[in-house]
Amino acid sequence: MNGRPDLFLVTDEGRDMRTDPDLAADAVRGNEAAFAELVRRHQARVRGMARRLTGSASSGDDIAQATFLTAWQKIATYAGGTFSAWICAICWREFLQVRRKTRPEIEFDETAEIIPFGAQGSRPSDQQDDRMDLSRALEKLTEAQRVCVVMCVAAGLTHREAAEATGWPLGTVKSHVLRGVEALRKHLAKPEVA
Description:
By secondary structure, this protein is an all-alpha fold.
């Protein structure tokens, strides 16, 4: 064969079993199928991260698409390590570019009183309500906290990987994650029923 017997290792389900670095190396050589596999593996993480950073499904999806386009164009710059950290760093930069181009029309007033939804009666919450509550709680964090929580908790990056992606000091990232998670817990705490 070609000296790499693992090159086309596929399970019975038809999934490619090559590592991300192997797929990236093949993508550098122009193998679009290898890059498509990387997209398949990481698209949920990137879309979720982008949607949480923007607070919008459509804007998040646009940033995710731009992220993968940039990744394809710059795949040769991937120097190993975790591919998810590399792709999330690109997502972060794409988010920053979009944010620089657009100015928010309404800024969140952190001193405003928060009125809980559904205060008149309680009903069992479903997953949609939980996602809406989480989105609202994320909006209440400072931008730095939101970015660090999204990268480290939602996207699963290590603190070090998030620090590399953002260019912020490791201690700063750890601090923002700690404070952000604590603030989320407070925002998401359900009032006790007497």
